[in-house]
Structures are given as structure tokens and as C-alpha cells.
Automatic annotation (TrEMBL):
Keywords: Hydrolase. The keyword Hydrolase applies. SUPFAM superfamilies: alpha/beta-Hydrolases. GO terms for molecular function: hydrolase activity. This is Alpha/beta hydrolase.
Amino acid sequence: MTDDAFDEFSFLPDQAAELGAGTPVPHGERLALTLPDGRTLSALRYAPAATPDAAPVVTLLHGAGLNAHTWDTTILALGLPALAIDLPGHGDSSWRDDAAYVGSVLAPDVTLGMREWTDAPQLLVGQSLGGLTAAAVAASHPDLVRDLVVIDISPGIDPNGGAQQIAQFFAGPTDWASRDELVDRALAFGLGGTRVAATRGVYLNSRMRSDGRVEWKHHFAHLAAAMASPAASTAQSAHGQAPDVVARVLREGGWADLAAVRAPLTLIRGQRGYLTDADVADYRRRLPGAQVVTVASGHNVQEELPAALGTLLREHTPYPRA
């Protein structure tokens, strides 16, 4: 089967079965919005099968190197109409020529998407880079956000800490002979969970080129590989520049955005994620009104604990489960 013939929603029945009998499979559709500069912003919209036109009440933003499908199982567990956006440079959204993948730059595109595809203030959920982007959206466009949930990220974390795993993971070859090689690499880095889940994630986050080679859909892998080259590392060190794309994301300030958020704010921290106890203490000090919830997960909570995360998110919505 070619990529063009593949149904990107074909995994949903198996994911629903993994959650347990009675989990409904929603209607899913791919959306696309042409941005003012000609780039494309892409997203997935999910609604109960009986009401496929139901407007989203939850909007979700993924982390660096992922795509909107990372939320699939969480959305199944959540059981509410939802919108999952491919951040620029990821999934089916266009890459940025300036490679500026930081929250404050991505937020305007996300804002346009939310205005196009939602019709009421959202529970806005962002993980990692998506969390920094969500904070920027909530700060600048409060009318779009009813509640804000940020998952396993704060503006002040050390880029040389746990987040280095992502830079190292993507700083490899930019193309591969098969998707199995990508699955093997993900599992070797402790990413992706089970082989079944990792295979699903890799398939939805990669594409086959016309020459038969496989590459990641997102721009990050290409940037990470370029910046990991010996020549680039030497030049960056000489000029005092950030050593990799992850450091560039985390170097950006985001405390001002979080401080400006007027919606209820919750931080969900993975016990084995990127935030240290010191990071969380700093978060509480800076944002005393925020709720902090710790779960037994690594950084990608939506993939490790989708059912539990769905339950947590449902507590932030006034809507009945579908």
C-alpha cells in the first residue's frame, strides 16, 4: 500500500480496543488552512460518529518532532469533539523557511487555525513545544481559551537535561531504508512505548519519498542532523550559539506569556519527564495560582498514559462525555 492510499484514521479501531470495550470510534477528518503567506496549516478534527459536524471543545498542540496523531488515543479516552493541530514544520503543515520553531512565532498560526475551526473558547492543551505555544496563544488571545493545560514543560528547563534525548534521537540520518529502522531507533531511545505503538507512531510521522527512502515528516530531524554535523558544532561554539534545535526552543522566554494567562492554568508533570523538582518549585513560585499535577509517566504523557490523561482533561470541561 502506498502512502497516498493509506487511511490515516485506520488505526483508531485498534486504539479504541486497547482502551477497552465500549470506547466509541469518532469520525475523523483532515483539515487544511492556507495562511496569509501561502503556507498550509493542517489539523485533525474528531467528533462523535453520530454528530460528525460537532464543533471542537478541546484543542491540542503536540511537542517538537511529533504531530497531531500523537493525541489519537487520548482523544478516544476523552470522548469529546476535539481539534489536534499539526504545528508548523510538523505533520502535514508547511515547514518554515526561517526554521523559527518557538512558541511565540508559532502562536499566530495556531490562532488563525483556532478561529477558523472552533466556535467557542477551548480547553487548550499543549505538550512540550505545544505547551509553550499554547501559553503564547492564551496570553495574546484570551477569548479563544477557557482553560489552559500545559504538559511537562516550563520556559526555564535546562536544554542539556532530559530534553537532550530528543536532539540526540533526531540527529541521525535524514532518510532511512524502511520504517522498521525508525521504529528500532525509537525503541532504542526508550520512545514510543510498545513496538505496536511505536510502529503506529512512526507510520503516522514519516513519509516515503519517490526514491523509496523513508524520512520524518517534520523539519526538526533535518535541522537536528544539520546542526549536529562537526562543522556546524564548531561554528556554533565559536559564536556562542545554541548547540541544537531543542536548545533553541527552550532558550526562548515564556514566563511572560504564562504570567499573562487569565484562564485557569494546570501543569501536568511526568514523574520521569523533563521537569526537575527545582523546575516545579520555580513554576509554583512564579505562578502561585496554577494547579500542578504529577503523573507516573515520562515526557510524552499523551502516549504513555492516554486513558489517565483523557480522564484528567475531562475534569477541565463542562461538557458530557460522548
